Amino acid sequence: MYHNTIMKAFERNLYIITTALLLLPAPLAAYDLEFLSQDKLSLNPHAALLRSHAINVLYTYSEDKNKHYMEFDFGAKIPGITLRNVSGADIEIGGAGGVFTQFQLFSQSFNFIHADFNGTIYTDVRYKRLLFETSIYHTSSHIGDDYILYDRGVVKNTGYEAIRHYTTFMADYLDVSVGFDYKLGRRPKRTIFSDPSIFLGARLDLLSAGIPVFVECDVEVIVGRRLPNVGIRAGVYLKYIFNTIFLKKPSSGKEPHELAVYFYSGYSKMGYFYDRRETLILFGPTYRY
Questions:
Q1: Sign of CA dihedral 260, 181, 87, 93
Q2: What was the pLDDT predicted at 146?
Q3: Does residue 41 share a domain with residue 168?
Q4: Which of 39, 82, 122, 201 is 20 to 30 A from 289 in CA distance terms?
């Protein structure tokens, strides 16, 4: 009987989902609908606070520990459905995800320190010069075996779900953003902050003026914490430098290749050390899908 109840519930939910998918195109038919669009509404990843959805190879120096690391990140932001000109606005719904890993340089065996896994569902709405970015995401963090073996660490996997929102005003060369992050669930609760965060950020991008340089700064204020997280990131667009400046080719308008230096001072992004502050200097290339 228990099995029949489960099957009936499954069939009912499957019917509802299938019906919704079949009816979805009807109200959308009046709009310019795109699937898996390559022209994203936003490429601004708010990367100064680390953990952006991109492919990164970053040398990392920890001033607090006086140790050297390599960060290997594999992430992407992929639009699913894009609606154009909905009451003057463009709407993009999609998914993003990534794996963020850290290895210690000059160690016994290129020690594996940790891995973070992130999965995100997002909605971006762009109206004139305003961009509204809303996402629901899950993050889990896992300590590496080498850290447990060589640094006397213990197994403490952490994870949480959260909702995040940014509102950005986009000028010709300068973007200014405000936002918040609120955690819906935490494991274990004593390790991960329950308090919401408030974001303030700015990004200067001179590419449209023919200068392939960008600078961004983000500040995260965690309610109830005395000190904020501060991230500064500055870099250049590699594709523009090589193709447009050196090879004299016309600019394609898309610049996925970046080379940047970071400064981050704040609470750790590693789940095992969420309650510890750190100061990092990072440098390396980035590719954004």
A1: positive
A2: 73
A3: yes
A4: 201
